């Protein structure tokens, strides 16, 4: 089952998180339309504004490797607390910019639970290019 396999991968990714201040590891895996996967973890910094979330880490890695808006299929996200966490609003903004509205964001727990949301459900009132005209 793909969900269980991805949960195991997300748990393993937690060990790559650099989260000495919050002790709150987050991992993410962006799945592209062609099946390629990009891993991401949160990377904290003593200057908190310089930190980056796992979701944006994975998404920006895909962009850095030549993928474009609309190339994203799914995103898997897991927090280390044992609960199901959802992307923060900065991450939701990036997700709404680059993913299709019907792409699925899989929010997973370390206990094996998963709740799925479409981008439209997570971002019901997106700010986008039309707002800049």
Describe the structure in your own words.
With 133 residues, the protein is α+β, with helices and mostly antiparallel strands. It is globular, with a radius of gyration of 14 Å. The longest helix is centred in the first third of the chain and has 12 residues, at 2-13. 28% of the residues lie in helices and 26% in strands.
Summarize the structure.
By secondary structure, the protein is α+β, with helices and mostly antiparallel strands. Helices cover 28% and strands 26% of the residues. The protein has helices spanning 2-13, 54-64, 89-98, 119-122; strands at 26-32, 37-41, 72-79, 99-108, 114-118.
Shape: globular
Name the helix and strand elements from N-terminus to C-terminus, one letter apiece.
HEEHEHEEH
Specify the number of helices: 4
Spatially, the strands of the biggest sheet line up as 2-1-3-4-5
- Sequence stretches where pLDDT stays below 50 over 5 or more residues: none
Largest sheet: 5 strands, mixed
Q: Radius of gyration, rounded?
A: 14 Å
The average pLDDT is 95
SSE blueprint and pairings:
Elements: H1 2-13, E1 26-32, E2 37-41, H2 54-64, E3 72-79, H3 89-98, E4 99-108, E5 114-118, H4 119-122
Descriptive terms for the model:
five-stranded mixed beta sheet, alpha+beta, 133 residues, 28% helix
